[in-house]
Amino acid sequence: MSAVALPVAAAARSFPALAWTVCRAEWRALRRSAVAVTAGLLLVVLTIAATLVSHEQMRAVEAERAHLQHEADEQWNAQPDRHPHRVVHYGHYIFRPVSPLAFFDFGVDPYTGHTLYLEGHRQNSANFSEAGQSSVLLRFGQLTPAFVVQTLAPLVIAFLAFGSVARERERGQLRLLVAQGLPGGALLAGKLASHAAVALLLAAPALAALAVIGALDAAVRWHALWMMAGYAAYVVLWALAAVLVSAAVPRARDALLALVGCWIVTVILLPRVLPDVAASQVPRPTRIETEVAIHKEVAALGDSHDPNDPHFAEFRRKVLAKYGVARVEDLPVNYGGLVIEEGERLTSELFVRHMHEEFGRQEAQAGIVGAAQLASPVLALRRLSNALAGSDRASHERFLLEGEAYRYRMVQALNRLHVNEVRYEGDRDQRIGSHFWRALPRFVHEPIGLSTIVQRHVRPALTVFALWLAGLVGGAWWLARRLERGAF
Amino acid sequence: MNTFKLELRLALHSRLAAGALALLLALAALAVWSGLHAVAQQRAALDRVAAVQRDDVAAVAHKYRTGGEAGYAAYSTPHLTDHPPGPLAFAAFGQRDVQPFALRVRLLGLQAQLYESESINPELAAAGRFDYAFVLVYLAPLFVIALMHDLVAGEREAGRLRLVHALPVPGARLWRRRIALRFGLVLAALMLPFLGGAVSAGVGPGATLLVIGITGLYVAFWFGLAAAVAARVRTSAGGAAVLLAVFVVLTLVLPTLVNGAIGRAVPVSKGAELSLAQRQAVHTAWDRPKEETMTKFFRTHPEWRDTPPLTEKFQWKWYYAMHQAGDDAVAGDVQAYRAAMTAREQWTAHSGWLLPSVAVQVVLHRMAATDLKSQLTYLDRVAAFHQQLRGYFYPYIFNERPFGPREFARLPQWQRDDGAGSVALAGVAALGLLALLAAGVGVAALRRVRP
Question: Which stretches are transmembrane (chain B) (predicted)?
Answer without folding.
Answer: 132-152, 183-203, 209-230, 237-258, 423-446
